[in-house]
User: What shape does this take?
Amino acid sequence: MRMIVVTMAEVSASEYAREHDISIRRAQAAAAAGRLDARRVGGRWLIDDALPHRHLPGRPLSRRSADALVARLSDDPGWAEGLSPSERGRTTARVAELRNEARPSERLAPWLRTAYPAALGFEAPADDLPDLRLDARLTPGGSSDDRSGMSDGGRLEAHVSISDLDAVVHEYLLVPSPRPNVTLRVHDGASPRPLPLGVLIADLATSTGPRERAAADGLIRRGSR
Assistant: This one.
């Protein structure tokens, strides 16, 4: 009978995928392409998980993993609460990976693609923008947060609770628009106040604007530990 000898550091593709929050097919493809240190034995891939591997780009993180990463980028002292040792290790490794990237926002944005609140675009009368900025139901974010270094008086980015969204839209006559001057990110619960640094970074990194992404890059390098 043929025996398959597995070293202590080697894991199957399914185990590697589960540990690194990616699909089995993606782990197998990375092994086949030589992006992972792996060998094929008996028709299956064995991957050396003791070696440092770059987290494979493109696959979005789960909500739990994304929340942990954003909290870690915020330097939240409770960021690791409720996480397993492996989850804490992966989150810390992702932050270190971001800080070593030339353009960390390009790696962060795909990770947050499905777990981060989508931006809703509206057009508002220009005269109403000052009142919107002072509305206690909204928390300025993105380019409207002073920490971004790029505040634009002609537009507003903010966070709002879903329970307040309809009232804000109605009171300020906000109209959905492909070219908005008001961008809102909607939360199931209360809008974070003040906006944690990691949330601001996520705002900027998931924007399509090059200036916003450059601002996210700077905040990741300066704000993470």
User: Anything to note?
Assistant: The longest strand covers residues 156-161. Confidence is low (pLDDT under 50) at residues 1-8. The two ends are 52 Å apart (CA to CA).
